[in-house]
Amino acid sequence: MATLREIKQRISGVKSTQKITKAMKMVAASRLRRAQENIIKARPYAQKISEVLSDLVSSTSDMQIPYFKKVENAEKIAIIGITADRGLCGSFNVNIIKAIENEIQQKYSNQNTVGNVSLFLIGKKGFEYFNRRNYKIDEKHLGIFSDLKFEFAERFITNLSNRFINAEFDKVILISNEFKSVMQQNLVIKQILPITSVSTESTKTEITDYIYEPEKQKILQTLIPSYLNSQIWKALLESYASELGARMTAMDQATENASEMINGLQLKYNKARQASITKEIIEIVSGANALS
Amino acid sequence: MKEKLLNIEIVSPSKPIFKGEVKSITLPGTEGNFQVLYNHAAILSSLSIGIIKIEDANGNKRKLATSGGSVEVKNNSVVVLANSAEFEDEIDKNRANKSKERAEERLKNKLSNDIDVKRAELSLARAINRLKISK
């Protein structure tokens, strides 16, 4: 049986861990608020550009635009995976990593064996995992979430879509976490390129007869990159907010578990203390009895 | 008589900039500046680096510096999808000056890469545009 001193040490150990988890929860919570605000700020643009683009795409029949170019039996696949840079956020990273691995194994195992699946990893955790396992990593971006900039999203996707246009890739897929609520993240697997359909939240079908200035093709050429930028930007913001949400929940759970543990240990400590007192009394009494 | 106003919305990727009713809006289209008034025909245009001018219902005029984007006009609602847009009083003059200097420096040093030259030119144009209206 553990001695009183040992139990006491464990209690103070758990208590200091609890302090850390509590602090981490607070930090995540305050960052989460800002991240959520950013999502809300980015929403109008993403929504509007989808609307404009879907109007335009639905009225365009000739798809002579490289961004729409569909390749039958896509051979060269690019997968963008967004994870966090840090752990201690529950199953957040594991979910993404598993999803990427499943996607590769189930849909593109042939392409993978000939080395045609390239990974674009954002976040340290994903990189560390796939780097150890001999996957083909094309790009890695670590530590971008602490200072998330729109320019990053812009550069990243411009580079990638140029490579898509140059036929270096037949398909670009994005795997990331979408922010549902603080407690809940949704895993999404989305095809970024070629663009198949532009989804909008509103369901209006009227087709407006626009004047185009300059011509339609050129407008699409400027709109689509902006659309892709906002898609990636949104994914990054959502992923970051999800990460913080997941960390908050995980740390909250950890703090609670620590409390439970402390309670258990305290009980054990009290019992041990009681036992030792009882033992002493018995010793004294039996000693006195022996004398008389 | 109800006044004839346009519903405009200016949004950038990182945040919404402006939303409201105005009499007119002047935009820097890639094919030249144009003004949108009530009952303008539906138009979809791309924008270049330049200045957006808006006139609200009371005749107050405000200017924004934009670094390009697109605009959609239909049913008297104008949606400006700007890559960036700042009101004249929001412009950080120091930052614009600095980026102007930086771009000039880069251009002077004759970069070997075409893309870099282009980028520096664009960033110079943006900086000059900002400085133009911040006075």
Mean pLDDT of chain B comes to: 86
User: What profile does the largest beta sheet of chain B have?
Assistant: 5 strands, mixed, barrel
CATH architectural group of chain A: 3-Layer(aba) Sandwich
What is the oligomeric state here?
Answer: heterodimer
Largest interface: A-B, 29 and 25 residues
Spatial ordering of strands, largest sheet of chain B = 1-2-4-5-6
Q: The CATH topology of the largest domain in chain B, please?
A: ATP Synthase, domain 1
Strand content of chain A: 5-15%
Q: Show unreliable segments of chain B.
A: none
Q: Output mean pLDDT of chain A.
A: 88
Structural class of chain B: alpha+beta
What does this structure look like?
The complex is a heterodimer of chains A (292) and B (135). Chain A is an alpha/beta fold. Chain A has one domain: Pyruvate Kinase, Chain: A, domain 1 (3-Layer(aba) Sandwich). Chain A is built from 6 helices and 6 strands. Chain A has helices spanning 4-58, 92-107, 109-113, 124-132, 150-165, 216-291, and strands at 77-82, 117-122, 137-141, 171-179, 185-193, 211-213. Chain A has a 5-stranded mixed beta sheet with strand order 3-2-1-4-5. In chain A, α1 (4-58) runs antiparallel to α6. Chain A is elongated. Chain B is of the alpha+beta class and 135 residues long. Chain B folds into 2 domains: 6-88, ATP Synthase, domain 1 (Sandwich), CATH 2.60.15.10; 92-134, Single alpha-helices involved in coiled-coils or other helix-helix interfaces (Up-down Bundle), CATH 1.20.5. Chain B has helices spanning 93-108, 114-134, and strands spanning 6-11, 16-29, 32-36, 43-56, 61-74, 77-82, 85-87. Chain B starts with 5 loop residues before the first strand and ends with a helix. The model of chain B has no long low-confidence stretch (mean pLDDT 86).
